[in-house]
Write a structure and sequence with these properties.
The chain has 199 residues and is of the alpha/beta class. It is built from nine helices and seven strands, in the order βαβααββααββαααβα.
């Protein structure tokens, strides 16, 4: 099965692009959504996160996201430790999901493919880009987050230009109609690449 990575900076519109691929019949796995789900479902992850962050990590069965965000915001080592707990479980879950799919290729949406040196796990990679100011506004609205917090996240991610250099395809997400057309074009290009190659 061909695995196509879908990446891009925060607020670039990866999920929107993913939904357009889904409309074309391509299965999409959203790593961030699955990570959040596993952090609630998995007893092993729950136990390890409480050991890492303390008793305020969960409100009953729900993950205390604001509390965790406040802990990892200025402490990269805590973020790395959390990722070391969660990411292997997500990877295992993805492998099980992959076995159930029947399509020419699948898409795995993940924000930090390049930052975590995970590019080798994908056959092809698409980067979604968008105007920086537009991205900040989207995330402020979506997450009710401060501009400073979003800018801090952006500063920890590779720039669009760096991502583009490492990608096979780029989709510029400025308006929905144009984005949809670019997804269709990219879809056909991927199918042609699969046909011609020895994947």
């Amino acid at each position: 099965m061909i695995i196509v990575g879908l990446t891009g900076g925060i607020g670039s519109g990866k999920t929107t692009v993913g939904s357009f691929f889904e409309a074309l019949g391509i299965p999409v796995y959203i790593a961030d959504t699955e990570a959040k789900s596993l952090m609630v479902r998995s007893k092993v992850i729950r136990r390890k996160l409480i050991a890492l962050f303390g008793d305020k990590t969960y409100n009953g069965k729900e993950l205390n996201r604001p509390y965790i965000a406040s802990k990892i915001f200025n402490d990269k080592s805590l973020l790395d430790q959390m990722n070391a707990i969660v990411h292997p479980k997500v990877a295992s879950h993805f492998k099980r999901w992959l076995k159930k799919q029947d399509a020419p290729y699948v898409i795995k949406e993940a924000a930090i493919i390049f930052e975590h040196n995970k590019a080798s796990e994908y056959d092809l990679i698409i980067t979604v880009t968008a105007d920086l100011e537009e991205r900040i506004k989207r995330v402020m609205h979506r997450d009710q987050s401060s501009r400073a917090k979003i800018e801090a996240i952006i500063s920890n991610q590779l720039s669009d230009s760096e991502k583009i250099k490492k990608s096979d395809y780029v989709i510029e997400n400025h308006d929905l109609e144009s984005t949809k057309n670019q997804v269709l074009t990219t879809h056909h290009q991927i199918l042609k690449t699969i046909e011609k190659s020895k994947f």
